[in-house]
Amino acid sequence: MMLGSCFTENIGKMFISNKFSCDVNPFGVLYNPMSISNALSLLLKQEFDYRRYLFNHDGVWGSWMHSTLFSSSDKEECIANIEKRFRKACEIIHSADVLFVTLGTNHYYALADDGLVVANCHKCPSSFFVELTASAGYIVENIASVLSQLFAIRNDMKIVFTVSPYRYRKYGYHESQLSKAHLLLAIDTLCRNYPRNVSYFPAYEIVLDELRDYRYYAEDMLHPSDLAVKYIWEIFSSAYLSPSAHKMMEDWQPIAQALNHRFLSHDSERRHSFWSTLNERIMRFSSTYPSLDVTEEKDYIKDKLNL
């Protein structure tokens, strides 16, 4: 399972595209440690009073615990989206081998009227919120509390922390660096407190210290570019994945590329031959790696073959 900022989304997509069983951000993108701790606690308890977090602004229903991905003009649709995703994530958190957490900033927001910590402000007026900052010690206190719950259930789970390389220009670059410093200090303490389970991957340092060329940044010059994500993924996979996992990815990539093939000609015989051959390759892959789910790909090819 992967929780955290948009950097988590990028690495999560790499896992999914390489056929790893991976659940990415069941609450949507989460930026601050407080919301991530809250999300983990809810998943471990398998109880969520989602109506406590529901709100309506300008005719749109949303949840203060979720990103806008779950929002809808229809209240029941919003609730259904939240419930379905939450139930799936509850199952996965209790069976996952690894939890990957990316912290984005120590700045967070709470509702001005009742102090409820929000995961996303949903572009609501600033008067709705108060802005707060969490010290390294406060971050450790909150995350350690939920890790104790987690390890009581799964004492063998591995947790990989990282800090998002995205810099928060709105705080000013100096304040953004101070924010990252609190996150880094907190993670370092957690690694020392739980050396058997917790580790740190230096994505933040790789981007700032190694990838200084502007081609490694998106158009806003703040987010890492696709090239940077691929570079970090190569280092990450080299550090954490086994030789057998690398072999699996090597076997899968040609199949993934073939699945994206688009025919320009209308030669039905060639098309049928192509999809039949690819179907055989997927069947062999499935036989070699029976634990991996290729149901979607099999159904896609059946549709192409009109089976």
Summed up:
With 307 residues, this protein is of the alpha/beta class. 50% of the residues lie in helices and 12% in strands.
What would you note in describing this structure?
With 307 residues, the protein is α/β, with parallel strands linked by helices. The chain has two domains: 240 residues, 3-Layer(aba) Sandwich (Rossmann fold), CATH 3.40.50; 66 residues, no CATH class. Helices cover 50% and strands 12% of the residues. The protein has ten helices and nine strands. The strands form three sheets. It has a four-stranded parallel beta sheet, sandwiched between helices. The chain has a three-stranded antiparallel beta sheet with strand order 6-5-7. β5 and β6 form a beta hairpin. α2 packs parallel to α4, α4 runs parallel beside α5 and α8 packs antiparallel against α9. It is globular. It starts with a strand and ends with a helix.
- Give the rounded overall mean pLDDT: 91
Strand ordering within the main sheet: 1-4-8-9
Radius of gyration: 21 Å
Q: What fraction, in percent, of the residue positions are helical?
A: 40-55%
Number of strands: 9
What's the order of the H and E elements? Answer: EHHEEHEEEEHEHEHHHHH
Q: Total number of helical segments?
A: 10
Structural shape: globular
The assigned CATH architecture of the largest domain is: 3-Layer(aba) Sandwich
Looking at the structure, the CATH topology of the largest domain is: Rossmann fold
Strand content: 5-15%
What is the CATH level 1 assignment of the largest domain? Alpha Beta
What is the terminal separation in angstroms?
A: 35 Å
Structural category is alpha/beta
Largest sheet: 4 strands, parallel
